[in-house]
Batch of 3 targets.
Target 1
Amino acid sequence: MDELNRLSVQDFQLTHKNPFVFVLDDIRSLNNVGSIFRTADAFKAEKVYLCGITGTPPHRDITKTALGAEDSVAWQHAPNAADLVQQLKTEGYQIAAIEQVTGSTMLHNFCPQENKKYAFVLGNEVFGVSEAVITACDVCLEIPQFGTKHSLNVAVSAGIVAWEFVKNKLL
């Protein structure tokens, strides 16, 4: 790990984060939750919000896929994603649901604004982002897909969105 020049957990907690958070809206799979923690760590997200039925650390299934990222990344449980979204809006976040809906913006056409913070909402593996949350969002982002399936795993979606956001900040 020394050769990889990775931050310690303590250094990670103190370092500047990228201006985005993940909001997990009723994610069922604890393995998906753990994977999203790892993605949040890899791309230096500010925080992960675990809403509704989404499981919280400590749990062995989260730890199995998070590999310790549940200790480095700030997180908080919120009983209701729609209420949290309203709170985040008052804190200045732009809210973006990752969902296939009429009028959605393709992810590659999304241009994050400088000096803005973003909350990316990821929905339930079966039902997606709840309608109440979609209604409250500033934008819905859709990841283009070209095969026979019409959805991606929620943890994979988190990785794609985080990379696209950070890439725009880097280039």
Target 2
Amino acid sequence: MSVEFIHKYTPGRVAFTVLLLHGTGGDENDLLPVGRGLAPGAGFLSPRGKVLEHGMPRFFARTSPGVWDPKEVEARAAELAEWLVSACNLYGIDPGKLYALGYSNGANIAAALLLLHPGLLAGAALLRPAVPLRPDVLPALNGAPVLISAGAVDDMVPPAGAEALGRLLSESGAHVDIAVQNAGHELTPADFNLGKQWFTRIMAV
């Protein structure tokens, strides 16, 4: 691969793969237990973010909490997209059965992949996301399923930010399900229950 990410890949028992995208300070191991719980039997591709913020891995840099340069997001999304194409070829992953599961910063880079590289992901579950950027031209997402789970008292990403992302993705043709949990930025059992229901439905198609 010309662009490399430290990562883990676990093949599944079914032809369905989940791209796991961690939050700030996470790594390629963080979401594996979550993924196995939400999408049992799936394969998992889990890269580590290449940007370091005070030693904590992220998928793109920010200038302060909730503030980042859209050009940085665009460049990092392009880099991840290039690697993802190579990884799909290397591991024999069907892009038509590749769905992202992202939390916080990972959810934001997943949203950027949907908006900037349509067709690379078949859909995504986005936990505590914000709008990563607004493309000049909206993509055609052709009904790609997207789950958004926001926190009602999230002081890092207010629900309005997640709802704005939902509108943007809907305008781009995605089929968006959005829920607001009685929670902050942390994940709760309600998020896991919702995510499991969503993945069970998607995997049955």
Target 3
Amino acid sequence: MKTAHSTTPGRGAAGFTLLEALVVVAIVAVLLSLVLPMSRGAMASARGFTCQMGLRATAFDFTVFADDVLHGPRGSDSTSQTFTLASFQDSVYGLNEFWAWPNDPHVLPDARGANPMRCPEVRGPITVRASMPCDSGGVSPWQNVSFAFNIRLHVREVVSPAPAATPVRLSAAALAAGGATVPLVWDVDAPAAVASDVAPFYSGPSLDSPAVFAGDQYWWPGLHHRGVMNVGFVGGHVLSTRRPLSESGWLWAFVPGS
């Protein structure tokens, strides 16, 4: 005679009990708590590496732009043995005399993925316009700018007879006097600069400045990468730092021709 099987749920029934389900959920939660920070850290490291690659490309292009033999078009500086940092900056963005985009104005990043002078930690597009220098309407909005160039390679501080900033003309010989460890371009905190009504395209610490650079009014280091700032040098290399003004051998005070 066959015995009917009980239909009452018990430990032999298929499926999870409530206790077993709770244990599984707890294990999954623990695993996620371990994996997610590692994943976020890996993604942040990848963005930092991408930023370094962008700065390295810019620094390398500068070494070519500054070379007496290797340089290509220098825009309005093409007829001179010297050039300005503004001309190089315009060439990297591809604007003013170096216009490189299919329409004017042009929004970056575009459909082709073009996105020069950008750090992946900085969100928001930028718009570039033809026939305008970078810091005179060629690039906007300012708060979305990623990188700043060394202001001491752009203008020279003059104290007498009155405080003023005069343009700097660069040359291979003038740059060689400073060596490879002169900072050229780095992560900038553009929103902080804009909040102080300062264009973020050129930056630099005040150091012992008595007038033009005093009060760190142009110093907006961008510690975008978990407290780390990436810096490209005139020698073409890139280094990272948490304390940019404490690094031995970095020539922040160098002024060409001084």
